[in-house]
Amino acid sequence: MTMSNGDLKTSNASFRIFVGYDPREDLAYQVCHHSITKRSSIPVEITPIVQSDLRERGLYWRERNQLESTEFSFTRFLTPHLSDYQGWAMFVDCDFLYLSDIKELVDLIDDKYAIMCVQHDYTPKETTKMDGAVQTVYPRKNWSSMVLYNCGHPKNKTLSPEAVNTQTGAFLHRFQWLEDEEIGSVPFVWNFLEGHNRVVENDPATQPKAVHFTRGGPWFDAWKTCDFADLWLSEMEEYSKENNKNAN
């Protein structure tokens, strides 16, 4: 059975979240995971998308391009396949910090769309990001960094392992398998770009619900003083204390 948003709201089924994983950013992944589970009022099932695992399973064989800044640049598009093309699931980069209950985002899901995301109009000023990776510029930049996938939508069957391994970056990151009207919009506060988006005083509609450290986050030495670094570092300390307590 294909699970709709209505099913999500009325059942105890876990909402599936796939988080991009890169060995260089393990701590970012752990903190992102913690920030979601800590605030979620609904059951969630969080799975890291690990490229080496996907290669072992025969789902990913694409050669790495020098412009790929992370190991999940393309593997993210396997989300519908990893969900057996059923129900809704979310992909998100690991460099996010969630500040609100994920249920609020799930409640925005509309079954008429194939995907939903924040539709940024964004051109980065920096030429490099994170730990010196090249900052590329292309249409619909950052749209694919947080996507709600209607995995059972017929159009998303296009995202087979074969397609994910052979299609161009433009085809995948610009969602060229879809018509514009099949792409739903999510408020920008769910993919609040650090260094780009701004909080307007006394306007709660501009308060971030999820901060995206797209230029680089406090887990890199060069970005320890970026906006919202204090929130991320606080979350990291909380995660570390809980992790150490569980280890003892």
UniProtKB/TrEMBL annotation:
Could you name the domain of life of the organism this protein comes from? Eukaryota
Name of the protein in its database record:
Nucleotide-diphospho-sugar transferase domain-containing protein
From which organism does this entry originate?
Brassica oleracea var. oleracea
